[in-house]
Amino acid sequence: MSTATALARPSAAEDPVDALIKSIRIPPRPSLLADLQRELASPDPSPDEIGRIVASDVGMSGALLKLANSSVYGGRKAKSINQAIMFIGMNQVAALMAGLLARQAIPADGAALASFWDLSSRRAQAMVFLSRRMRIGASDVAHTFGLFCDTGVPLLMNRFADYGATYAAASLDTERPFTALEDERHSTSHASVGCLLARNWGLAGDVSWAILHHHDYTVLEDASAAPAVQSLVALSLLAEAAISKYQGQAESIEWNKGGARVQAYLGLSDEETAELLDELIEAFHAD
Question: Rounded mean pLDDT of 193-222?
Answer without folding.
Answer: 94
